[in-house]
Amino acid sequence: MKTNYRALDISSFFIKKGVSPLKLQKLLYYSQLWFFVKNDRMLFDDRIQAWIYGPVVYDVWANFKFMKRSSIIPNNRAVNLDLDHIIINHLDNVWNSYGHLSGSDLVDLSHNDLPWKNSRKGLLSNQPSDKDVIINKNTTVDFTLDSHNRIPIVNAQNTLGHYSNF
After folding, report:
1. Rounded to whole angstroms, how far apart are CA atoms 159 and 82?
2. Which of 2-6, 18-22, 129-133 has the lowest mean pLDDT?
3. To 10 degrees, what angle do helices 21-39 and 103-110 make?
4. Residue of 18, 14, 20 whose CA lies nearest to 32
5. Which band of pLDDT confidence, cut at 50, 70 and 90, is reported for residue 69?
6. Which of 14, 71, 76, 137 has the greatest count of CB atoms below 10 A from its CB?
């Protein structure tokens, strides 16, 4: 299995599903987090930063910063990659668990996660930051696979509802 993917490579999978830049960022975060939980290693090499509206991969943000955060990214921005079947299965699992949520739902959800909360310690809620979101054994202790070794499906009511108005 290839292990040196870039977040932009992984982005194409979700772009083909029809996502906004905001939703894409959070799906990348959950893809990285759950891949670590399942495999004890990272899916992609890019840093994830603890921005005000949740986890962000800077290079991916830079590619789509011209778009409104709630606009759907055009399919022609996706590249065709031969992703390993294990990676595709993982990304399908992430999509099945989080794909039904809006970008703002995912912001709310990520703000309740230990990796993001730890990375934002000492910062005001509206204070910019380029601190890394740390994903490791300590910060993922609350993330548990279901009895079928899959990512649990998240309900919209599990989000905090704070950012869903933007």
Report:
1. 34
2. 2-6
3. 50
4. 14
5. confident
6. 14
What pLDDT is attached to residue 2?
A: 60
Instruction: Output the six-digit token pair for 90.
Output: 């993982």
Domain boundaries, the chain: 7-158
Separation between Cα atoms, residue 60 and residue 24, nearest integer Å: 9
Sequence-distant (6+) residues with CB within 8 A of 148 are: none
pLDDT at 68: 80
d(Cα 6, Cα 123) in Å, to the nearest integer?
28
164, pLDDT greater than 60? no
Which single residue is written with the structure tokens 């031969």?
82
* Residue 132, helix vs strand vs coil: strand
DSSP state of 44: B
Beta carbons of 133 and 116 less than 8 angstroms apart: yes
- Average of per-residue pLDDT across 38-62: 96
Residue 41, judged by CB atoms within 10 A of its CB (0-12, 13-18, 19+), counts as: exposed
Which residues, in sequence order, are CB contacts of 2 under 8 Å at separation 6+?
Answer: 84, 87
Q: How far is CA 54 from CA 44, 58, 115, 128, 148, in A?
A: 18, 12, 10, 11, 29
